[in-house]
Amino acid sequence: MSIKALSGVRSMALAVLLLIGVSNSAFSQSIESRDDPEFQRVEPFQVFDNLYYVGAKWVGAWVLETSEGLILFDSLYGDLTDIAIDGIRDLGMDPNDIRYLIVTHAHFDHIGGARRIQEEFGAVVLMTEEDWQMTEEPPVYREYPKPIRHLSATHGGTLNLGRDKLTFMKTPGHTTGVLSTSFTVYDKGYPYAAVMFGGAGLNFEGVERTQMFIDSIEFLQSLPDVEVNIPNHAHSIDLFERAERLSQRKEGEPHPFVDPDAWTAWLDELMSEAQEKMRDEVAKAN
User: Fold this and answer.
1) Can you list the positions of beta strands (E) in 83-189?
2) Which residues contact 167 (CB under 8 A, 6 or more apart)?
3) Which of 148, 149, 131 is nearest to 140 (CA)?
């Protein structure tokens, strides 16, 4: 690769890292360590009675445990997929029990390990039709093993496994088919309403896509009584800081992930950033 080409790759990578919350000062370390499974590995941990984090430092993966098997949210990618698989085992579960893999969107860091999860464990993959179509097109950032097409999730569609019910929502913008999911989590048996917003990054171009994102934020803001934000990138809710507080929680103290005010504030912040982006996109278009 030429020096000019390498510079271009590093510039694009820097832009992506900044958009997902990595500072410029951390760039040199991040670009070399982002794909390193040893650097990215974190011990898996339980967040709710039925929900566990099995992701990496910079990109997330979650397991929802049901009475009829496991539901995995996102697959990581490359060697990082081992982090999710090992995490499931370390938590005392069997990856052969993964019944469904829900892919939030078709960027490599979320979909890259999907083919492996299909082939090794027989999981059924769900994604929106728009993002299934993305797998037939040149990849946005980098190549990944194309998963076998399984099921398309629709807006308002549901998935029932055991006693658990998941409701799907299309929230486009980050990609044209971002998939968000609402479901119930439990803390010592007490239920809370959780939502995973499948794509919060503003690394896309154009007025139309920006309007999609704004419309999606408005839709999420309209959802009633959301109590728990489940991120697919840890920085969105200071995931590891909250996990540390959870590990030190004393009897009677509130669960640090149950934070409806933080959900509202985060969406307000995303909306403000999206509106600023819209002004820039309109100016470029004119």
Assistant:
1) 98-102, 124-128, 151-153, 158-161, 164-170, 179-187
2) 156, 157, 158, 181, 182, 183
3) 131
Reading the block at residue 145, the tokens are: 């093993």
Of 67, 143, 71, 63, nearest in space to 108 by CA: 143
Q: pLDDT per residue over 20-64, tens digit each?
A: 444 333 434 466 689 999 999 999 999 999 999 999 999 999 999
For 90-140, write each residue's pLDDT tens digit.
Answer: 999 999 999 999 999 999 999 999 999 999 999 999 999 999 999 999 999
User: What are the start-end ranges of the E strands in 172-285?
Assistant: 179-187, 190-196, 228-229
Parent domain of 276? 40-285
Q: Letter for the amino acid at 79?
A: D
Q: What is the CATH number of the domain that holds 109?
A: 3.60.15.10
Q: Which two tokens stand for residue 120?
A: 């090794």
Report the relative pairing of strands 190-196 and 228-229 from DSSP bridges. Answer: parallel
Give pTM, 2 decimals. Answer: 0.89
Domain count across the chain: 1
Helices (H), 112-238: 114-121, 129-134, 207-222
